[in-house]
Amino acid sequence: MLLKTSDENNPSSSEGIENVSVLPPESEPAELGHRDDVNLSNLISNDQAKNNFNVGIFKELLMFRIDVGDVDLLNHLESAPKNATFVSKTIQNNLIDICGSIITDKLIKEVNECKFFSILCDETSDLSHIEQMSLSIRYVDLKSCLIKENFICFVPVYECTGENLANTIVQKLKEIGLNLEFLRGQGYDGGANMSGKYCGVQARILNLQPKATYTHCASHRLNLTLIKACNVLSVKKLFSTVKEVSNFVRDSPKRVDLFKKKINVKLVETRWVESHEVIIRFSDMFIPIVQFLEDMTINTDGNILSKCNGLLHSTLTFEFILALEVAVEILSLTLPITYVSPTPPT
Predict the structure, then answer these.
(1) Main-chain phi, psi angles of 304, to 5 degrees
(2) Fewer CB within 10 Å: C terminus or N terminus of the chain?
(3) Would residue 19 count as lying in a domain?
(4) Are residues 323 and 234 in the same domain?
(5) Are residues 314 and 233 in the same domain?
(6) Distance CA 320, CA 237 (A)
(7) Closest by alpha carbon to 116, among 88, 142, 98, 134?
(8) Which of 189, 216, 243 is the endpoint of a domain?
(9) What is the C-alpha separation between 110 and 35, in angstroms, rounded?
(10) DUF4371 domain spans which residues (predicted)?
């Protein structure tokens, strides 16, 4: 992460201050962890310690602010009691949680004032490979007469059956203060555990609230339509090979790390593949992907070598490359449709 600031308009400084702070590339915005236990006073007084990038992203950002002339922050850290600097990871994480709770409470209050609402849910795995279900609320704002859609929270799930997911959703709605009596819609993808007629999430919630109509996600339907509508064998094989390459990388953290060295793109795991973007990105990254597979054939053996060789051969055939380029051209026309939001701007 690269941060740069120019403090030319600060009346307390005689000249503009420019500073560039480079944070480690693996630093991701997240809650604070064990590396944020470093004593900040030692960093301020020790120039060598300032250059240590293993002190945590939060401490790096504080030092960055001090380096570019934040006198108030420096005075606070030097003069405040050691138990009242409010920069420990525990206090900062508590503040993050409090801010999140305040925002959520305001959103829920607004939803309750509008009375009726719908829910939108989807699942994906986070970086620690824990399945997370996102919960969003869609409702009509009575003051502006506009449809609003707000993300509420992520809910960890450890069993992806229709029964467990439905119970998780119902329980979470109760926790945040939304009454199932006023639920009027459900929006999920077409997975059997979500859309199943008898045992899916939508069926179980429909039993509890018959007025909560289920709607299949429009983007997912478009994705499925494009896949099912194509009967050309080469394109079918294209989608299959791309999916196999993606799964081959994701199935091993070591392979994920090797792949990241080839390209600077995050791998996002979702339960269904968004064909448009995946195919277009695969085409853009075709050479690095081939290089990655070639490296894997050199450094592996056994079943992995056989699998990798098969994928490399499949991606280098003329049939695959031709189908890839044709698919890119066609999907480039349909991609904008997936970005069209049904919600009017608020």
Answers:
(1) -65, -40
(2) C
(3) no
(4) yes
(5) yes
(6) 8
(7) 142
(8) 216
(9) 39
(10) 46-200
* pTM for the whole structure: 0.60
Same domain, 186 and 206: yes
d(CA 201, CA 207): 10
CA distance 289 to 18: 39
How many alpha carbons fall within 13 Å on the CB side of residue 154?
9
Q: Are residues 121 and 165 in the same domain?
A: yes
Give the domain extent around 50: 40-87
Contacts with 132 (C-beta within 8 Å, 6 or more apart), sequence order:
123, 124, 125, 126, 154, 155, 156, 157
Give yes or no: residues 233 and 212 share one domain. no
The residue type of 164 is: N
Structure token pair of residue 325: 């380029």
Give tens-digit pLDDT for 27-84: 444 455 555 555 666 556 555 555 555 667 777 888 888 888 889 988 888 888 888 8
Strand bridging mode 213-216 / 146-156: unpaired
Closest of 110, 164, 156 to residue 137, by C-alpha: 110
